[in-house]
Amino acid sequence: MSLAQHIARQHKHLDDFIELLEAERESLSFAQVDGKQLSEQARRKQALIQQLERLEAQRLVAQRKLGYGEGRQGAETAATDANCLDTWLKFRQRALQAKQLNQFNGLLIGARLNQNQRILDFLRNAAGQALYGPDGQSRMGGLGSVASRA
């Protein structure tokens, strides 16, 4: 397989990964997250990451065997010599896009976890206090500070 064919194969898997990241972002944007769907997306995401890592390792081995350096310069020189520098640069740009999408999704997940923790803290605090006094009146004054954080 030529370097150009290998990069095209990597690019196809990377496009699949980006498509999955976009679906994950959409799943995370709903008010109520479908945990089963999100779990399946995480499983598929892990499988695609492993495949991308295998393909990258194969590309690096071939690059070394052909006598090119390991870093960015070696990859660009190999791609130039194989007449596929443009394909390689497009692949690197898509990889950067995937990295940014994955980081953004991580921020969304962190925000959801933070929100859930605040809700749990509120519920734990509320469970320890009576909501109504002996006169039947609401004791929201005691929970007001908690409610403002939830």
DSSP strand count:
0
Per CATH, what is the topology? Methane Monooxygenase Hydroxylase, Chain G, domain 1
First-to-last CA distance = 57 Å
Q: Please, what is the oligomeric state?
A: single chain
Helix content: over 70%
What is the second-level CATH architecture?
Up-down Bundle
State the fourth-level CATH superfamily.
Answer: FlgN-like
Radius of gyration of CA atoms, rounded to a whole number: 25 Å
Major sheet details: none
Quote the beta fraction: under 5%
Uncertain ranges: none
Can you tell me the number of structural domains?
A: 1
Class from secondary-structure proportions? mainly alpha
pLDDT averaged over residues: 88
Topology pattern, helix = H, strand = E: HHHHH
| CATH C-level category | Mainly Alpha
Shape by Cα distribution: rod-shaped
Question: Helical segment tally?
Answer: 5
